[in-house]
Amino acid sequence: MLEDYLKDRRKEKDILLMTHIVAGYPNWDACFDLVDAMVDAGVDLMELQIPFSEPIADGPVILKANQDALERGVTVARCLEFGREVARRHDIPFLYMTYYNILYRHGVDAFVEDMAVSGIQGAIVPDLPPEEGDDYLRAMTRRGCNPIFIFSPTTPDERLRYLSSFAQGFVYCVARKGVTGMDTRFTEELSTYLARCRQATELPLALGFGVKDKQDVDYLKGKADIAVIGTQTLRLVDTQGVAAVGNFIRGLR
Amino acid sequence: MNHNGYFSDFGGAFLPEILMATFDELTTAFKNAKADPNFWREYATLMSTYSCRPTPLTLAENLTRHFGGARIYVKREDLNHTGAHKANNVMGQGLLVKRMGKTRVIAETGAGQHGVATATMAARFGFDCTIYMGEVDVERQRPNVFWMEQLGAEVIPVKDGTRILKDAINEAFRDWVSNMDNTHYVLGTACGPHPFPEMVAWFQSIIGQEARAQVLEREGKLPRSIYACVGGGSNAMGIFSGFLDDATVELVGVEAGGRGLDTGAHASRLCSGDAAIGVAQGYKTYFLQDAEGQMKETHSIAAGLDYVGVSPILSHLKETGRARFAVATDREVVEAMRLTIRREGLIPALESAHAFVQAFKDAPNMAPDEVIIINQSGRGDKDIFTVADAFQDPGWREFIIKKAKQYHA
């Protein structure tokens, strides 16, 4: 179980790291190298984003990566093959991150079936609240995959508990308003919010959006279980290339 | 509609968690406004004093004679302040923004009509205003950009994706998830997550209410058919809602056929095989998308119809058979517009001219005692650059070249 794996791992480390890549960006060879480098640098789990033409929750950097991948002909079928391959090669948990239309068009059952067969342990679908997710939740439960739900600073306590009742594996706490890749202020307000999240669920807490360096990761120790590094590694790939990523990750904790 | 904003299997609210609380607040404000008769009264008064409501229902005698069939009436939404039905929705949402105590509005715009209407509303009510507009649309609707900026709005050209309406909507959502505390997103059409389709259709229903009363007064009977162009679907929903319960009245929505359905260069979600049910921009409806769920490029001569999705309420009306849908190609639209200008002295927007195309196809086959209404959702003056190109007007071309030289000097 993902939850158990994370809790066990947390006993050995102050904080876990989850990294993110956009499947097919900047190209497939680089993606395999990136996953190798990230796993080698000790990340504890990874999100593989399947590109979508309308990624409304993503900021400019990830948006551009989605568009570039699609323009270069990246298909959902190829992304699923990629997921299968990396999950076979590495023994950390992998998750898909994508928007609901990708699942819907593929067929939700078929998509989840593919995940299960490939050993992908869960999914983050930011535009699918539980209210709209009956088919998805049923399929995920049947195949033992973890639906990862999102907490936000604007979510009232009652709704945090409601979301927690559907969540499995861990909960993804969005650090602030806005889209991915903008600055986050790591202040008292964030700790208060994380404490509120902690109250609402027994599941491990991941904190993402704007986590970019060791200082940010250090701040999260004792407050969250998983630090999520998303846009920052993409920026690094864009500016310094894949080779720079391993050292960057090693320097985070 | 059920409590989650579904019409048949269309609609819903596929929202990122960060916006949930904002939508709860909006839904509550909308429900309260709808339940409060004073709100609608205030809205109707505003529209009759600040815009030109009720807009006239014009009998197009020359066109009627030309086609020799049904009596053709035109509902004159072009006479609204800012020149289109967009004002109805925008002023309504403006009143709601005041109720919610927010101080800033944002909007997407395609043709620029919704952007101009929103900027106007913001100027009138004293709100800050940011308008997102695809870079391609900024090019083809430059005069509207000028007016939005004069009205005090910041116009942000969207350079991502296909750089048209859908991309402007995505960008507006990205702004909203950052600034929802003081900002309301004035969505311009009957699309998007619940409660937008229902809310926009409600504000626009003022068109249908008036049209029904006007046609009954003039003709003593209900029309046989109602024609409206369909982009997102707000003007169609507006006029249709007046006649939804009149089973004998045929409702006809006309989509953008672009260069023809078989070319792939069109924006027809309800008549072409290129569309399928999907979920994007927060709601479920027919989208022009590929087999893997990526949205396609769309094309129309009319920027306001150039959109991948369609109102979930219209998808529902198609599914139930209550409405019929047709397409008009760019070429047919230009011809219908030319004819309407010459014969009737009316200048419909390129968007609205789509409705005229289908009405002109049907009218000759109807009896002279039958009545039809075309919704002229906006005026065509704004399209002068596109229309002059389409008409290949030599005088205009010369004027632009001369004007450009003046700026160079």
How would you describe this structure to a colleague?
The complex is a heterodimer of chains A (253) and B (409). Chain A is an alpha/beta fold and 253 residues long. Chain A has one domain: TIM Barrel. Chain A is 48% helix and 15% strand. Chain B folds into two domains: 154 residues, Rossmann fold; 219 residues, 3-Layer(aba) Sandwich (Rossmann fold), CATH 3.40.50. In chain B, 46% of the residues lie in helices and 18% in strands. Chain B has 15 helices and 14 strands. In chain B, α4 crosses α9. Chain B is globular and about 55 Å long. The mean pLDDT of chain B is 95. The chains are: A alpha/beta (253), B alpha/beta (409). Chains A and B meet through α3, α5 and β5 of A and α1, α8 and β11 of B.
Brief summary:
The complex is a heterodimer of chains A (253) and B (409). Chain A has 253 residues and is of the alpha/beta class. Helix content of chain A is 48%, strand content 15%.
